[in-house]
Design goal:
The chain has one helix at 39-58, and strands at residues 19-25, 61-72, 81-91, 95-105, 113-125, 135-136, 139-140. By secondary structure, it is mainly beta. The protein has a 5-stranded antiparallel beta sheet. Strands 6-7 form a two-stranded antiparallel ribbon. A hairpin with a 3-residue loop joins strand 3 and strand 4. The longest helix has 20 residues, at 39-58.
């Protein structure tokens, strides 16, 4: 019998890379009907951390416009310490793409485990909520 399941590419990373954006504890209130941490909760933590990272780069408010290539690699359990790390992928005229990784440290483990990763795109917005050019060293990015 052939395996017809789609699998995320094997992870060869042994520790988190990039900027730590957020760290939180997975709690019982964050579980799904099966008692595991709800994937939507983890996705929201990643989005929060990525938004903080993108806003620091844009030096403005940012909004999420796309999430792609999400890989849910391992389950997250109650009591896991969840850390979200960000790496800059691309800066466009108004948008920023960030690769986010969620790692957990389980209670009786010594090493962190990559549980989820994906690319999030944010757009810099002005006070009226309209897209605006991202400023770099005093001048807008023109490309």
């Amino acid at each position: 019998m052939t395996d017809t399941h789609v699998h995320a590419p094997e992870c060869l990373e042994t520790e988190p890379l990039g900027d730590l954006c957020i760290r939180t504890l997975a709690m019982p209130a964050d579980t799904n009907a099966n008692g595991d941490i709800f994937g939507g909760w983890l996705l929201s933590q990643m989005d929060l951390g990525g938004g903080v990272f993108a806003s620091k780069i844009a030096k403005s408010r940012t909004v999420t416009v796309a999430i792609e290539a999400m890989n849910f690699r391992k389950a997250v359990y109650v009591g896991d310490l969840v850390s979200v790390h960000a790496n800059l992928v691309r800066v466009g005229r108004t948008s920023i793409t960030v690769h986010l990784e969620a790692w957990v440290l389980r209670r009786k483990e010594m090493l962190s485990i990559l549980v989820t990763d994906g690319n999030f795109t944010y757009v810099s917005i002005d006070e009226q909520g309209r897209p605006q050019a991202i400023q770099r060293e005093g001048t807008p990015i023109s490309a």
